[in-house]
């Protein structure tokens, strides 16, 4: 029964193509007249795997909305979890950005790459940190997301967490996944380090933790 309902739901994705949402614009398209009734369910389903003009796939939409059964079926039928849209956004980024923890789990089990970056350099981990989805931050770290991948401004998830006053659990979890002190001392585009930001935030507990983990106190 659940699969049958999901099949019906997937078929209705023809209507979803009328409202394509990107990060910056919403494009309304009238495509109903161009979609003929499929000869078989399989034929119709394969059409759902083709990206629309904004290159947002049904899997990205299902991930954004938290539609678990739809996402599962799309993946079972061959949807690529790492496919990017025009802004290099992926289904995992959409799920992380919108707090869809169950879908994050599903995508990671399907070997979705947690370290892909969009056109600004942001990763799924950065999105989860910025949106304060603490549980998803932990899931991504456990799924081998790298906490020190830099965006185009040379910031990373750890620096972002400190600047955005993330919870101690998140910051310390990010720290625990830093592979070496050398990486911990990386600077952003302003020449700041995790330690310098922690000092500016007057977060003594974090300063102590950073020093214990090998942060260099002699850097600016």
From TrEMBL:
InterPro entries: Ankyrin_rpt (IPR002110), Ankyrin_rpt-contain_sf (IPR036770). Keywords: ANK repeat, Kinase, Repeat, Transferase. Pfam families: Ank (PF00023), Ank_2 (PF12796). GO terms for molecular function: kinase activity; ubiquitin-protein transferase activity. ANK repeats lie at residues 54-86, 87-119, 190-220. One of its GO terms (biological process) is protein K6-linked ubiquitination. It comes from the Eukaryota. Gene3D superfamilies: Ankyrin repeat-containing domain (1.25.40.20). PANTHER family: ANKYRIN REPEAT DOMAIN-CONTAINING PROTEIN 39-RELATED (PTHR24171), BRCA1-ASSOCIATED RING DOMAIN PROTEIN 1 (PTHR24171:SF8). This is Kinase D-interacting substrate of 220 kDa. It comes from Geodia barretti (Barrett's horny sponge).
């Amino acid at each position: 029964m659940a699969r049958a309902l999901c099949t019906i739901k997937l078929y209705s994705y023809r209507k979803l193509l009328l409202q394509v949402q990107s990060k910056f614009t919403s494009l309304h398209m009238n495509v109903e007249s161009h979609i003929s009734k499929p000869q078989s369910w399989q034929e119709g389903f394969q059409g759902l795997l083709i990206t629309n003009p904004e290159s947002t796939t049904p899997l990205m939409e299902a991930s954004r909305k938290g539609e678990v059964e739809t996402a599962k079926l799309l993946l079972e039928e061959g949807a690529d979890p790492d496919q990017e849209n025009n802004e290099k956004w992926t289904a995992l980024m959409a799920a992380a950005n919108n707090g869809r923890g169950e879908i994050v789990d599903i995508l990671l089990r399907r070997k979705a790459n947690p370290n892909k970056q969009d056109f600004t350099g942001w990763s799924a981990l950065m999105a989860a940190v910025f949106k304060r989805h603490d549980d998803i931050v932990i899931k991504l770290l456990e799924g081998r997301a790298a906490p020190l991948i830099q965006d185009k401004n040379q910031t990373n998830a750890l620096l972002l967490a400190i600047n955005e006053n993330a919870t101690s659990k998140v910051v310390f979890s990010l720290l625990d996944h830093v592979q070496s002190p050398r990486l911990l001392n990386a600077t952003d585009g302003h020449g700041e380090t995790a330690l310098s930001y922690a000092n500016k935030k007057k977060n003594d507990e974090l300063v102590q933790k950073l020093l214990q983990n090998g942060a260099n106190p002699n850097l600016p």
